[in-house]
Specification:
The complex is a heterodimer. Helices cover 40% and strands 11% of the residues of chain A. Chain A has 18 helices and eight strands. In chain A, helix 2 crosses helix 9, helix 5 packs across helix 7 and helix 13 packs antiparallel against helix 14. By secondary structure, chain B is of the alpha+beta class. Chain B folds into two domains: 60 residues, Arc Repressor Mutant, subunit A; 77 residues, 3-Layer(aba) Sandwich (Glutaredoxin), CATH 3.40.30.10. Chain B contains seven helices and four strands, in the order H-H-H-H-E-H-H-E-E-E-H. Chain B has a four-stranded mixed sheet, with helices on one face. Classes of the chains: A alpha/beta, B alpha+beta.
Amino acid sequence: MKTLASFGPANRIARTEETHPLTWRLRSDGQPVWLEEYQQKNGYAAARKALLEMGQADIVSTVKDSGLKGRGGAGFPTGVKWSLMPADESLNIRYLLCNADEMEPNTWKDRMLMEQLPHLLIEGMLISARALKAYRGYIFLRGEYVDAARHLRHAVEEAKAAGLLGKNILGSGFDFELFVHTGAGRYICGEETALINSLEGRRANPRAKPPFPAAVGVWGKPTCVNNVETLCNVPAIVAHGVPWYTGLARPDSGDHGTKLMGFSGKVKNPGIWELPFGITARELFEEYAGGMRDGFTLKCWQPGGAGTGFLLPEHLEAQMYSGGIGKVGTRMGTGLALAVDHTVNMVSLLRNMEEFFARESCGWCTPCRDGLPWSVKTLRALERGQGRPEDLEVLLRLVDFLGPGKTFCAHAPGAVEPLGSAIKYFRDEFEAGISQAAAADRPTAEFVQA
Amino acid sequence: MTTLIKTDRFTLSDAERAAIEQEMHHYEDPRAASIEALKIVQQQRGWVPDGAADAIGEILGIPASDVEGVATFYSQIFRQPVGRHIIRVCDSMTCYIGGHESILDSIQGQLGIGPGQTTADNRFTLLPVCCLGNCDKAPALMIDDDTFGDVSADGVAALLEAYP
């Protein structure tokens, strides 16, 4: 029996419908939950309630009141995003897009949901489409997720045959059709306006905002783009209500609900688990990931993907929610943490990361297109021990020039956040890459003067 | 002495044309099918030959230059011939920590190719790929549509054998 790449620890911890709304239906063998089993496990009950008993505005206000935030990394409140869709009823062609372009390094949560629980995403999209008055939806899935594509397509066919997609769904009078669109590579497609360009069959350059997609999105129509995990939260919020949802997280958490969190790197038990917001990173690291493997010690860690900053072992006391990680100086991101062990040199690790960000820059704006390759050249020189005395200054300037608000989209700021934090905490490793000969030759750094 | 000038006469097969026309119906605008059209062409031929942009542009009613612009933007559309099998090695920082560079060295040693290169017998093309979402099983790689985790430098040879 073929086992899915996403099969792992999330399938093995104890789960209940009340405490693990995203993952309680997972099978212990990692095989996908198809329609019959999904319905036996209360699947599409929330859709029935949303379409037959709730008004469109009620769904929006429920999601708004739940405090659900986007799970793609930015954490924007979902209900607020939904409310940005125009009130004008004459704008009756609207789209719901699911961002399933999961390419953030160290992130594999959406893969698990789509491979094993394709109907949860479809139900989430159906309810969300009703709330947004969208008549058509697209799941924008990265091309390399071939199992997810196969499972989603099969699930869409099952749902169509059962009258859960198509015309007059469940006799509600609501019509919704759903397509699975697969991409052809390029990390930038995950940026929501680049995703819209890509869906339209164009190069995936981000678009200027405003106008925001809610006003002018795909094919010029009002469009809402939500992440897979975000949409998968919607059915349970509708089924069980706001008080239940807000009670899921730890009491002192600023964010509500549960989150797929993980730890990878040289930990004993790498994996993802559905956990309440507000647990400490230490709980995640020690109790779930089992701490470091024998012979390895934790040097630093990243809370949620390549675009988040590095933190030290002492920061493991931070709580896993946006405000908790914010307090120690970076972002929660996708919540899938990475342990960096003592054998890893930070210059080499950052070289690897900036090679990725430089390769995946769409090239649209100059700071990103030219700045990221510059950081790669500088890091490669430092890695070889051939850095120049001014190289640290060059890197810190790039961290500034490519930072938030100075580039066309969030790609470059995401690329320099780990770089800035790595230099902050491990400056000596970068300084060690400066060639002694070069230091003797060129003690000043005139050419980088502004 | 005469020189033979070979022109690239590209014609879509009936099956390709039908598949592209079918895809167009999934979108509000035919242009949206351009990426899928390129994938359809690539599926049978392995790559997107010169001339395909004109043929696709004609069906979709968009300039060939737009199709070419799309073809050259996306990393999984190949505008030059590739091997029968594509090896995609994940180079995320998680796989870096897991030792993916030793996997690349092992492939280089066995096949004599680095990232972006194709073996002389056209059996394999090696490419880097964004995080494959297999981070608990790093390092990871894909061969064609199959994903492998916990790959070791020593284990690569056995994996490759299954792809003649």
